[in-house]
Amino acid sequence: MSRAVIIGTGKYLPDNIMTNDDLSNIVDTSDEWISTRTGIRQRRISTGMSTSDLAYEAGLRALNKSGLRPEDIDLIICATITPDYFMPSCACIIQDRLGAVNAAAFDLTAACTGMIYGMVTAEQFIKSGMYRNALVIGAETLSKVLDWEDRSTCVLFGDGAGAVVMAKSEGDGGILTSNLEADGSKYDYLTCEAVPLENPYVDSGITHKVPRIRMLGQEVFKYAVRTITDNINTLLSRAQISKEEIKFIISHQANQRIIEQASKFIKIPIERFYMNLDLYGNTSAASIGIALDELVSGNEIKKGDKIILVGFGGGMTSGSILLEWS
Q: Which of 71, 77, 157, 169 sits most deeply, having the most CB atoms within 10 A of its CB?
């Protein structure tokens, strides 16, 4: 049976580091306040690179590790809520810069679950036989949609990109099973406005708003803990494997307390939940790809290891993937 396997990973973070102490100079907060509530100590903030720039760099690194040429890529998916433009898509810009002339390209929006949605989408194209090699990137410049006067949100987020190259394989390993979910009734838990309606039939007195992230923090927390637990249980049930067989769980890196609470609920030791949010904060669609590349680059994952990727985000969306590393 053909499966989608990961043959290359990559990440890219802006050089500029903003610490919690740096943030305390622009908003009423402190290192102690942020770190005890979130586990975040610093984040990367772009000083000029756009989402497509970050995505290109991460994608290039994943492509180089895969051993493929740009023209071998059949599909590029970029998961983001902070694109450079409404059109063209970031994926089309990346296609041009990489020289991936044979690739179809589109952006996908599932907020912090974007990398999971992108990988599952690519998997379907690969398993159907339509495409053989896909580049999936999660990339965000969240700093451009933050309210830097709102300490409940601006302390959480950072910029970055993570990427994987996925390919068709007839061997063992790869994606064993996956799950995607959404609950639109909770759409107002986490929002970022788009442009308002303005045309000759609408009152011209519209006040334009700059898009900003707004969040109902407690509601997001409860949703996240529940959906991490539910998604992991769903994968284990479908694959008919035990918790003890899982080497690592890479959750979306939103908040240390969320991950710790999920660990307790599902009764899997916190040591098996990989975390790097102290360094990067919440990078939305980029976070899972960044974390996966760190594990791979550090030789922490061996052939045959089983890994769960699980995400949750605005929409509300959630999703998960069970991988056997090949």
A: 77
